[in-house]
Write a structure and sequence with these properties.
The protein is α+β, with helices and mostly antiparallel strands. The protein has 2 domains: about 30 residues, no CATH class; about 90 residues, no CATH class. It is built from 6 helices and 4 strands, in the order ααβββααβαα. The longest helix is centred in the C-terminal third of the chain and has 12 residues. The radius of gyration is 21 Å and the shape is elongated. It comes from Ligilactobacillus ruminis. InterPro entries: Transpos_ISL3, Transposase_DDE. This is Transposase.
Length: about 140
């Protein structure tokens, strides 16, 4: 019934139980995929507006599949760091070669400290561009 879009309250009415019982039974029956088998070599980090207009963090495979690696309830550096440190081994994190991010500076320190093999080539290009760009231009 839940797959057909019926609310927990609707299911509770049909089954003559409370909505909290319906939610508890669904939670017990559904086994969520806790993590990917391994971290991909190339990751994408971004944030998106989720429940109640709060910003959440998403990480996905930057290759062809674009499989979701993680969705976190917020985009705080502490939360992201704890997620990758607790769920991924040092070897898995060392195998990551690149991380694609927008120009959000929040991720730079975290990426450098958590993913040792990631190159900062784009960051160097950005700094090089900004040195020669007209500060008042639209492109800057």
């Amino acid at each position: 019934m839940a797959r057909e879009g019926i609310t927990a309250t609707g299911i509770a009415r049909i089954c003559h139980c409370s909505p909290s019982s319906v939610i508890r039974i669904i939670d017990e029956a559904v086994e969520l995929k806790s993590r990917v088998a391994r971290l991909p070599e190339n990751l994408c980090f971004d944030e998106f507006r989720s429940v109640n207009s709060t910003m959440s963090f998403i990480c996905c495979d930057a290759e062809v599949s674009h499989d979701i690696v993680a969705i976190l309830e917020n985009r705080l550096t502490k939360t992201i760091r704890e997620h990758f440190m607790n769920r991924c081994t040092n070897r898995e994190r060392a195998a990551v070669k690149s991380v694609v991010v927008d120009l959000n500076a929040q991720y730079i320190k975290f990426i450098k400290s958590s993913f040792a093999a990631v190159s900062s080539a784009f960051y160097k290009k950005k700094i090089g561009f900004m040195k020669y760009a007209d500060g008042g231009s639209l492109r800057f």
